[in-house]
Design a protein that fits this description.
It is built from 9 helices and 5 strands; from the N terminus they run ββαβααααββαααα. With 258 residues, the chain is mainly α. The protein has a 3-stranded parallel β-sheet with strand order 3-5-4, with helices on both faces. A two-stranded antiparallel sheet has the order 1-2. A hairpin with a 6-residue loop joins strand 1 and strand 2 (10-11). Helix 2 crosses helix 5, helix 6 (175-181) crosses helix 8 (215-233) and helix 7 (192-201) runs parallel beside helix 8. It is globular, with a radius of gyration of 18 Å. The two termini are 24 Å apart.
């Protein structure tokens, strides 16, 4: 987790293993102190424009993101806002866990913002229905929806909510966007020299860490600097081409896909 409010972004308690509940409490406290743009690296909603439903064939599933967050939360009692039971038990047939499930491509559905990023030359994003392997995002995304449900009404969640004139907002992020904007190859960074090269490309001062950062830490720092630069200099940041009111209410959008 990183704070980009200063000239150079900084890590917040880098030696601490954060729980989701702690992140929720920290965010609400920080949002109350000063207007802040917070970023979460998970899908704020599954794709729906492609098939017309989040979980086709499943009865009584809502058709908007905000209602779907409530649906996911009501079907989970996992510890620390987890959602493993949602994927592994109650809605198992919608998620790909391995070859026994059949043809993987039949599970891989994507949002309109993913398609736009790929059309611009971005590497293929992960599907919210892919629940296996190091690159899968399903477990974090559905757990994140439980967290968003608890933020709902307390902090603006863009684009489901419009960007407020005053106050804080939460957005969905994708680190590779900022690595590419910094002129980097888009691959993970694992050294101070690579990190500071990326920060320089984003108009940020270098960080002075007493240790070599891991890729999670560099992701957070680069994204913090990138979000700040984008919000300050790009008029389309909160009004990207292709984001319709219907998509804002149902699928959401990744901040930085223009």
């Amino acid at each position: 987790m990183a704070d980009a409010g200063s000239a150079a972004p900084r890590l917040v308690r880098p030696d601490h293993v954060w729980s989701r509940s702690e992140v929720l409490d920290w965010l609400l406290a920080e949002a109350a102190k000063a207007p802040t743009l917070f970023g979460f690296d998970f899908s704020f909603a599954p794709p729906i424009a492609e098939r017309g439903e989040y979980l086709p064939g499943q009865p009584r599933v809502p058709l908007t993101a905000r209602e779907f967050w409530d649906y996911v939360d009501s079907h989970c009692d996992d510890e620390d806002l987890g959602a493993a039971s949602f994927l592994e038990e109650s809605h198992r047939r919608h998620f790909y866990f391995g070859i026994a499930d059949g043809v993987k491509a039949e599970f891989m559905h994507f949002r309109r913002c993913d398609a736009r990023l790929n059309a611009q030359g971005g590497r293929k994003t992960a599907s919210a229905y892919d629940a296996i392997g190091a690159a899968q995002v399903a477990k974090a995304s559905f757990a994140g929806m439980r967290l968003l449900h608890r933020l709902d009404g307390k902090v603006a969640i863009w684009p489901m909510d419009p960007l407020p004139q005053h106050g804080s907002a939460v957005v969905e992020i994708y680190t590779r966007i900022y690595l590419r904007r910094a002129g980097m190859a888009g691959t993970k960074l694992r050294s101070r020299s690579e990190l500071n090269q990326a920060l320089k490309g984003l108009g940020s001062k270098p960080v002075r860490l007493p240790f070599e950062p891991n890729d999670h830490q560099t992701d957070a720092l680069v994204t913090g600097a990138g979000m700040r630069a984008l919000a300050a200099s790009e008029p389309r940041a909160f009004a990207p081409e292709g984001l319709t009111p219907e998509l804002a209410a149902t699928e959401g959008w990744t901040f930085g896909i223009l």
